[in-house]
Amino acid sequence: MSLVRRWKSGDADAFPMIQSEFGEGLRKIVSRLVGKEYTDDVMQDTYQRAYHYRHTLRDEQKLGPWLAQIARNQCKERLKQNYADGLVARPGDDLMDILAEYNVDRPFMNLIDQVTLRIDLERAFSHLPKLNREVLDLHYVQELPVPDIAKLLGLPVSTVKWRIHRGLELCRLQMLEYQFEQGRTKEDKTK
């Protein structure tokens, strides 16, 4: 009997093995999304929820992505609670910094240009397909290596690499389009 089947049938010894296999990747995701101070609580909530809803796992091969989705949902709940409690957390800011460095060589930008670039990057990132956004976030923000992302999402390594490459290209194209639009808008105002 497989480890997942044992766990789903209630074998108490199987879950610690699953935790040891997926725990590090999940911890990185959770830590990045909610910060180190809440990571242990969210990890505990994630494991409790996974254990309680283990019967809903349909495909044993998709255990990693299933656990990752539970972790992301628990992070969202924690962030909502933080917001309600007046604690502001904004996950994903580092991604905008990383994307700003990708094919953008502007070391002497003034503050207004930096803010404009950040806004354009956020808009470009938000327009990416979810598949590309997810792998870019996992790779660049949560600093997971490509093989770990592949395992977590249940995808071949080549697919993850392609999604990262394509996501960066799409983001760059969006940035060029925004810059072109801004240039046309400035020209129209001067006429």
Automatic annotation (TrEMBL):
Entry keywords, A to Z: DNA-binding, Sigma factor, Transcription, Transcription regulation
Domain RNA polymerase sigma factor 70 region 4 type: start-end pairs: 120-171
InterPro entries xrefs: RNA_pol_sigma-70-like, RNA_pol_sigma-70_dom, RNA_pol_sigma70_r2, RNA_pol_sigma70_r4_t2, RNA_pol_sigma_r2, RNA_pol_sigma_r3/r4-like, WH-like_DNA-bd_sf
Residue ranges annotated for the RNA polymerase sigma-70 region domain, each copy included: 26-82
CDD domains in the cross-refs: Sigma70_r4
Pfam families per UniProt: Sigma70_r2, Sigma70_r4_2
Record bears the keyword Transport: no
Annotated protein name in UniProt: RNA polymerase sigma factor
Originating organism: Alicyclobacillus fodiniaquatilis
